[in-house]
Design goal:
Elements: H1 26-33, H2 37-42, H3 59-70, H4 87-90, H5 98-113, H6 117-142, H7 150-161
Length: 166
């Protein structure tokens, strides 16, 4: 993870690490790199896939695919399987972290500016569902410290999330 306060700590006597681009949000960064064909051809964002391809089924892949679709660049990105993009699946995306939620707000704003109300509505459903799931999972995690039921907390959380794109 990159952060403006710590990036310089990775510098050495032979290499300097500079935090750059902090004034741009992720949609703006994606828009910038989408101008370069080589970046689109080689764009790999997935942390789940163990190959050179993106899985096209996780939260990170979906948010990148949606952004590229809205920018009209998805078809030029060979690392994504276009047949896996489905607007109906957007509502099933689970966003556990504040960063994810912010990114989806940025994507929703882009979708609104492009007249893609279907994507705006799907992201809104996703964020509302994520808020409810976050509350439920917090309760389930509290079971991990309770006698007799602690062993059911993690499998229950996994079972609930299995219906969503994580």
């Amino acid at each position: 993870m990159s952060h403006i306060a710590t990036d310089h700590l990775f510098s050495t006597g032979h290499m300097r690490i500079v935090h750059d681009g902090a004034t741009f949000n992720r949609v703006e960064k994606t828009k910038f790199i989408s101008k370069f064909d080589i970046a689109l051809r080689e764009l790999r964002v997935c942390w789940k896939s163990r190959s050179d391809e993106n899985c096209c089924a996780c939260n990170k892949c979906y948010r990148t695919m949606i952004t590229l679709e809205l920018l009209g660049k998805l078809e030029r990105s060979s690392k994504f399987n276009l047949s896996k993009v489905d607007v109906r699946k957007i509502a099933k995306i689970y966003s556990p972290r504040h960063n994810d939620i912010d990114f989806y707000h940025q994507i929703s704003s882009l979708a609104s500016s492009k007249g893609r109300i279907d994507i705006v509505k799907a992201i809104d459903r996703s964020l509302k569902t994520s808020a409810r799931l976050n509350k439920l999972l917090k309760i389930i995690r509290s079971f991990q410290n309770k006698r007799f039921i602690w062993r059911y907390a993690q499998p229950l959380g996994k079972a609930i999330l299995s219906r969503y794109i994580t």
